[in-house]
Write a structure and sequence with these properties.
This protein is α+β, with helices and mostly antiparallel strands. It folds into two domains: 4-40; 45-88, no CATH class. Helix content is 44%, strand content 12%. It contains three helices and four strands, in the order ααβββαβ. It has helices at 4-10, 13-40, 78-83; strands spanning 49-51, 57-59, 73-75, 87-88. It has a four-stranded mixed beta sheet with strand order 3-1-2-4. A hairpin with a 5-residue loop joins β1 and β2. It is rod-shaped and about 75 Å long. The protein binds zinc ion (ZN). The site of zinc ion has 6 residues, from loops.
Length: 94
């Protein structure tokens, strides 16, 4: 019967490195899988409206003005933009 303490003290440096490499590989793999799962699954929260703080218009993704320099105000819901005093853009009609 070998106790845990004996097992530890019998570990050679090579065995210790193997265990460390194994733990590192497992950690990296689980991180990659988690990253894949979270990126591949379509996320509803990726969709948002952008408000232009200069013109006070808001745009939906795909609009010509979406991502413009002054489009820095983010709205999750159309109602939020309207409540904040923003008007729907005439081009993308969000
Ligand atoms: Zn627009």
């Amino acid at each position: 019967m070998v106790t845990c303490g004996l097992l530890k003290s019998n570990f050679s440096d090579m065995e210790r490195i193997h265990v460390q490499v194994y733990i590192a590989v497992v950690l990296i793999l689980s991180f990659l899988i988690a990253a894949l799962v979270f990126n591949v699954v379509p996320n509803e929260s990726d969709f948002y409206y952008q408000g232009d703080y200069v013109t006070h218009l808001f745009h939906k993704p795909g609009c010509l003005y979406y991502g413009c320099k002054s489009c820095t105000v983010i709205f999750r819901e159309r109602e939020d933009a309207i409540k904040a005093g923003y008007l729907p853009c005439k081009i993308c009609n969000p």
